[in-house]
Amino acid sequence: MNRKRRNVRDNPRQCAAEGAQAGHLKESATLRDLFDATIAREPGKQIVRDMLRRTSKHLCNCLGKLPSDIQISQLLEVVQTLRTFLAGKRYGPVTFRRYSNCIRVLIETAEDLGRIAGNAALRRKWREILKRRPRALRGRWVEDWATSRGIDPDHFGAAELKLCAREAVQEGRSYFSVCPVESYLRRLVVQKKLA
Protein backbone atom coordinates (compact mmCIF):
# COMPACT_ATOMS: atom_id res chain seq x y z
CA MET A 1 0.00 0.00 0.00
CA ASN A 2 1.45 3.34 -1.01
CA ARG A 3 0.62 6.15 1.43
CA LYS A 4 1.16 9.73 0.41
CA ARG A 5 2.96 11.97 2.87
CA ARG A 6 0.95 15.01 3.89
CA ASN A 7 3.61 17.60 4.59
CA VAL A 8 7.33 18.20 4.78
CA ARG A 9 7.43 17.64 8.54
CA ASP A 10 6.14 14.08 8.09
CA ASN A 11 9.00 13.26 5.73
CA PRO A 12 12.45 14.04 7.17
CA ARG A 13 14.00 12.22 4.19
CA GLN A 14 12.47 14.81 1.88
CA CYS A 15 13.49 17.55 4.34
CA ALA A 16 17.06 16.31 4.23
CA ALA A 17 17.25 16.18 0.45
CA GLU A 18 19.24 19.39 0.45
CA GLY A 19 21.96 20.40 2.88
CA ALA A 20 25.45 19.39 3.72
CA GLN A 21 27.73 17.66 1.28
CA ALA A 22 29.66 14.73 2.73
CA GLY A 23 31.83 16.03 5.55
CA HIS A 24 30.87 19.72 5.25
CA LEU A 25 28.35 21.76 7.18
CA LYS A 26 27.25 25.32 6.62
CA GLU A 27 28.24 28.01 9.12
CA SER A 28 24.78 27.95 10.73
CA ALA A 29 24.25 24.20 10.49
CA THR A 30 20.84 22.75 11.28
CA LEU A 31 19.37 19.32 11.94
CA ARG A 32 18.73 19.01 8.22
CA ASP A 33 22.41 19.60 7.38
CA LEU A 34 23.56 17.30 10.16
CA PHE A 35 21.18 14.54 9.04
CA ASP A 36 22.68 14.68 5.53
CA ALA A 37 26.24 14.69 6.84
CA THR A 38 25.55 11.72 9.14
CA ILE A 39 23.91 9.71 6.35
CA ALA A 40 26.85 10.50 4.04
CA ARG A 41 29.20 9.01 6.67
CA GLU A 42 27.16 5.79 6.89
CA PRO A 43 26.48 4.90 3.25
CA GLY A 44 24.52 1.72 2.67
CA LYS A 45 23.30 1.28 6.25
CA GLN A 46 19.53 1.34 5.79
CA ILE A 47 18.80 0.59 9.46
CA VAL A 48 20.84 3.62 10.54
CA ARG A 49 19.10 5.80 7.96
CA ASP A 50 15.65 4.67 9.03
CA MET A 51 16.36 5.20 12.72
CA LEU A 52 17.88 8.64 12.11
CA ARG A 53 14.89 9.53 9.95
CA ARG A 54 12.43 8.52 12.69
CA THR A 55 14.49 10.40 15.28
CA SER A 56 14.47 13.52 13.10
CA LYS A 57 10.72 13.22 12.67
CA HIS A 58 10.16 12.96 16.44
CA LEU A 59 12.49 15.90 17.08
CA CYS A 60 10.58 18.00 14.55
CA ASN A 61 7.22 17.10 16.07
CA CYS A 62 8.51 17.55 19.62
CA LEU A 63 9.93 21.02 18.96
CA GLY A 64 7.26 22.02 16.43
CA LYS A 65 9.90 23.02 13.90
CA LEU A 66 11.18 21.91 10.52
CA PRO A 67 14.64 20.27 10.34
CA SER A 68 15.97 23.42 8.68
CA ASP A 69 14.88 25.44 11.75
CA ILE A 70 16.48 23.25 14.45
CA GLN A 71 20.00 24.41 15.28
CA ILE A 72 22.68 21.87 16.20
CA SER A 73 23.11 23.48 19.62
CA GLN A 74 19.48 22.58 20.44
CA LEU A 75 20.33 18.87 20.18
CA LEU A 76 22.47 19.16 23.31
CA GLU A 77 19.47 20.17 25.40
CA VAL A 78 16.56 18.37 23.73
CA VAL A 79 16.83 14.95 25.39
CA GLN A 80 14.61 15.72 28.40
CA THR A 81 12.02 17.46 26.21
CA LEU A 82 12.00 14.50 23.83
CA ARG A 83 11.58 12.07 26.74
CA THR A 84 8.48 13.93 27.94
CA PHE A 85 7.13 14.11 24.39
CA LEU A 86 7.62 10.38 23.76
CA ALA A 87 6.15 9.45 27.16
CA GLY A 88 3.04 11.39 26.17
CA LYS A 89 2.88 9.26 23.01
CA ARG A 90 3.20 6.13 25.19
CA TYR A 91 6.67 5.15 24.07
CA GLY A 92 8.60 3.10 26.62
CA PRO A 93 12.08 3.66 28.10
CA VAL A 94 13.79 1.23 25.71
CA THR A 95 12.41 3.04 22.67
CA PHE A 96 13.43 6.37 24.15
CA ARG A 97 16.99 5.07 24.65
CA ARG A 98 17.15 4.15 20.96
CA TYR A 99 16.16 7.66 19.98
CA SER A 100 18.59 9.23 22.45
CA ASN A 101 21.35 7.05 20.95
CA CYS A 102 20.48 8.46 17.53
CA ILE A 103 20.73 11.97 18.94
CA ARG A 104 24.16 10.99 20.25
CA VAL A 105 25.17 9.85 16.73
CA LEU A 106 24.07 13.21 15.34
CA ILE A 107 25.97 15.09 18.04
CA GLU A 108 29.11 13.00 17.46
CA THR A 109 28.94 13.81 13.76
CA ALA A 110 28.71 17.51 14.62
CA GLU A 111 31.68 17.16 16.97
CA ASP A 112 33.76 15.32 14.38
CA LEU A 113 33.00 18.03 11.84
CA GLY A 114 33.97 20.75 14.30
CA ARG A 115 30.49 22.20 14.84
CA ILE A 116 30.43 21.55 18.60
CA ALA A 117 34.04 22.11 19.57
CA GLY A 118 33.63 22.37 23.33
CA ASN A 119 32.09 18.94 23.81
CA ALA A 120 34.61 17.01 21.72
CA ALA A 121 37.45 17.55 24.20
CA LEU A 122 35.15 16.83 27.13
CA ARG A 123 33.95 13.57 25.53
CA ARG A 124 37.56 12.50 24.92
CA LYS A 125 38.35 13.00 28.62
CA TRP A 126 35.37 10.89 29.63
CA ARG A 127 36.21 8.16 27.11
CA GLU A 128 39.72 7.96 28.57
CA ILE A 129 38.26 7.43 32.05
CA LEU A 130 35.58 4.97 30.95
CA LYS A 131 37.72 2.89 28.60
CA ARG A 132 39.61 1.54 31.64
CA ARG A 133 36.45 0.11 33.19
CA PRO A 134 35.92 -3.66 33.22
CA ARG A 135 34.64 -4.94 29.91
CA ALA A 136 31.30 -6.15 31.29
CA LEU A 137 30.40 -2.68 32.60
CA ARG A 138 28.58 -0.29 30.37
CA GLY A 139 28.44 3.36 31.31
CA ARG A 140 28.20 5.45 28.20
CA TRP A 141 25.23 7.15 29.88
CA VAL A 142 27.63 8.69 32.42
CA GLU A 143 29.62 10.28 29.61
CA ASP A 144 26.42 11.58 27.99
CA TRP A 145 25.07 12.94 31.27
CA ALA A 146 28.28 14.70 32.29
CA THR A 147 29.03 16.05 28.82
CA SER A 148 25.55 17.47 28.37
CA ARG A 149 26.06 19.41 31.61
CA GLY A 150 29.63 20.45 30.81
CA ILE A 151 31.15 18.51 33.73
CA ASP A 152 34.64 17.17 33.14
CA PRO A 153 36.06 14.20 35.11
CA ASP A 154 38.09 16.55 37.33
CA HIS A 155 34.89 18.15 38.65
CA PHE A 156 32.79 14.99 38.88
CA GLY A 157 32.35 14.06 42.53
CA ALA A 158 30.10 11.94 44.73
CA ALA A 159 27.16 14.36 44.48
CA GLU A 160 27.28 14.37 40.66
CA LEU A 161 27.61 10.59 40.62
CA LYS A 162 24.55 10.14 42.83
CA LEU A 163 22.45 12.53 40.72
CA CYS A 164 23.65 10.92 37.47
CA ALA A 165 22.78 7.40 38.69
CA ARG A 166 19.36 8.51 39.98
CA GLU A 167 18.50 10.13 36.64
CA ALA A 168 19.69 7.04 34.75
CA VAL A 169 17.24 4.87 36.69
CA GLN A 170 14.46 7.43 36.16
CA GLU A 171 15.17 7.30 32.42
CA GLY A 172 14.42 3.59 32.47
CA ARG A 173 17.84 2.02 32.88
CA SER A 174 17.87 -1.05 35.06
CA TYR A 175 18.94 -0.45 38.65
CA PHE A 176 21.08 -3.58 38.38
CA SER A 177 22.95 -2.21 35.36
CA VAL A 178 23.45 1.24 36.93
CA CYS A 179 24.78 0.01 40.31
CA PRO A 180 28.02 -1.63 39.07
CA VAL A 181 28.95 1.45 37.03
CA GLU A 182 28.14 3.70 39.99
CA SER A 183 30.29 1.53 42.30
CA TYR A 184 33.18 1.56 39.83
CA LEU A 185 33.09 5.35 39.50
CA ARG A 186 32.68 5.80 43.27
CA ARG A 187 35.95 3.86 43.75
CA LEU A 188 37.63 6.22 41.29
CA VAL A 189 36.30 9.23 43.19
CA VAL A 190 37.64 7.80 46.49
CA GLN A 191 41.01 7.04 44.85
CA LYS A 192 41.13 10.66 43.63
CA LYS A 193 41.18 9.58 39.98
CA LEU A 194 37.97 11.57 39.53
CA ALA A 195 37.29 14.96 41.14
Task: Characterize the structure shown.
With 195 residues, the protein is mainly α. The protein has two domains: 1-115, no CATH class; 118-195. The protein contains ten helices and no strands. The chain has helices spanning 12-15, 31-41, 46-63, 72-75, 79-88, 93-112, 117-130, 140-148, 158-170, 175-190. The N and C termini lie far apart (58 Å).
List key phrases describing it.
195 residues; 2 domains; disordered N terminus; 61% helix; single chain; 10 helices; mainly alpha
* Total count of domains: 2
In whole angstroms, the N-to-C terminal distance is 58 Å
Task: Round the Cα radius of gyration to an integer and report it.
Answer: 18 Å
Helix and strand run: HHHHHHHHHH
How would a crystallographer describe the biggest sheet? none
Number of helices: 10
Number of β-strand runs: 0
User: Pairing-aware structural class of the strands and helices?
Assistant: mainly alpha
Strand content: under 5%
Shape: globular
Approximately how much helix is present in the residues?
55-70%
Low-confidence stretches: 1-24
Mean pLDDT: 78
List the helices and strands and how they pair.
Blueprint lengths: L11 H4 L15 H11 L4 H18 L8 H4 L3 H10 L4 H20 L4 H14 L9 H9 L9 H13 L4 H16 L5
Task: Provide a compact summary of the structure.
The chain is an all-alpha fold and 195 residues long. Helices cover 61% and strands 0% of the residues. The termini are far apart.
